[in-house]
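Can anyone check this?
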Amino acid sequence: MIEYAWKGILTGIIISAPMGPVGILCIQRTLSKGRWYGFITGLGATLSDSIYAIITLLGMGIVINFVETNQALLQLVGSIVLGFFGYYVFKTNPTRSLQKRTEKKSSYTQDLISAFFLTFSNVLIILLYIGLFAHFDFVLPDYSFGMIAGGIGCIAVGAILWWLTITYVVAKLKKWFNIRSLWLMNKIVGVAIIFLAILGFASAIMISYLHVPL
C-alpha cells in the first residue's frame, strides 16, 4: 500500500512539474501577486488533473482484463509514451509562454477557476495518464475501489506538494529568478522523466522476454 501511495504521489508530481502554460501562469502570479496566488493557481490545475485521472482510471477499469493480460505490453507502451513526453519537455522552451504583463488583483477564486479551465482544455493529458498508469501498474484486478480512490488522492497530494514547493522556491528566490531558471527547470524535469521511462522500458523487456521481474 505504501508503494502504491508513492506511485500516486510521483504521478502527481510528473503531471504537474513540466513548465506548460499553467506552470508559467503559476510562476507569473507568484512573482507579481504573491506565493499564495501562485499556489491557488496550481490548486486549480490539480482539480482539473484529478478529474482527468478519474476519467482515465474508469476507462482502464472497464478493460481491466485486457490490462491484466497485456500488463508487460502496456508497461512497454506506457514507458515509450512517457519517454516521448520527457523528450518534449526537455526540448520545450517555456520562456516563449512567458509574457510580461501586469494582472489586476483578482481573487483567489478567480485565479483557481481560470487555472482549472486552462488545464481542463488540455484533453491530451489523458494520454499521459494512460502511459503513467500502465508504467506504474496503477490499475490491477486485485485493487479495490478504496485503494484506487486512495491512489487518486495520492496523485492530488503529489501535485499539491509540487505547487507548494515551486511557489515557495520562486517566492524565496524572487530576486534571482529569471528566464534561464525556467529553461533549466524544464531540462531537469525532462531528463528525470526520460530516465523513468527507460527504467520502465527495461523492466517490461525483462518481464516479457527474460521473465525476470525488476
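Reply from J.R.: I decoded it. The mean pLDDT is 78.
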